[in-house]
Specification:
Length: 92
């Protein structure tokens, strides 16, 4: 199965998601948070840096739980300016 390339907006959404995770992680180490969520530190590193912009749902849910984040709020925060960015892309 061939995976459809991500759009620039999807990459930006992934970067926003990673930044939110870094902010929520605060002073806790990446290794500590990753272990508590049941993912590897490398996976968390890739998500936080935007190199893995579309992590699996259960990975997102586990990280949100460890970091005390609401999935609804997290989704809304990552989708900020979605409409205006998509409109710019369509008008270009």
């Amino acid at each position: 199965m061939v995976r459809t390339p991500l759009s620039p907006w999807e990459w930006q959404r992934g970067e926003r998601f990673g930044a939110l995770l870094r902010l929520a992680r605060g002073d806790r180490s990446m290794v500590e948070v990753a272990a508590a969520a049941g993912v590897s530190a490398e996976t968390l590193r890739k998500i936080e840096t935007g190199r893995a912009p579309t992590p699996a749902f259960f990975t997102v849910a586990a990280l949100a739980g460890v970091l005390g984040l609401s999935l609804d709020e997290l989704a809304a925060s990552c989708a900020e300016d979605a409409g205006s960015e998509q409109e710019r892309a369509l008008s270009a």
